[in-house]
Design brief:
This protein is mainly α. It is built from six helices and no strands. The longest helix is centred in the C-terminal third of the chain and has 13 residues. It is globular.
Length: 97
């Protein structure tokens, strides 16, 4: 809930603390990742990408959603690669889970 309020009011003073939360990959990182994405904090891109690629973090689909909401041009390659894989292997189940 706190992360939602931080993002809603664009409380930029909380960005360093939110970034710190992303350093320890686990399922609860999704809340600060979403807040940072909603606030369009582009320096969170690398941390969110690490969480997407770290299977131990869990909640991968929510980190992918946060990446999309971030609106960072660096994410285009990631989404194009995912789309390309989905087109080449249409029978695969959703891989984001």
């Amino acid at each position: 809930m706190a992360c939602r309020v931080i993002a809603q009011y664009n409380y930029t003073q909380a960005v360093p603390a939110l970034m710190k939360f992303l350093e320890k990959p686990n399922w609860s990182c999704v809340y600060p990742a979403r807040a940072l994405a909603k606030m369009k904090v582009s320096k969170s891109y690398e941390s969110i990408m690490k969480l997407i690629n770290d299977k131990s973090a869990g909640n991968r689909k929510y980190f992918v959603e946060a990446l999309a909401q971030l609106d960072d041009k660096r994410a285009i390659r990631f989404f194009l690669d995912r789309l390309d894989r989905a087109v080449k292997t249409p029978n695969l189940r959703r891989q984001s889970d």
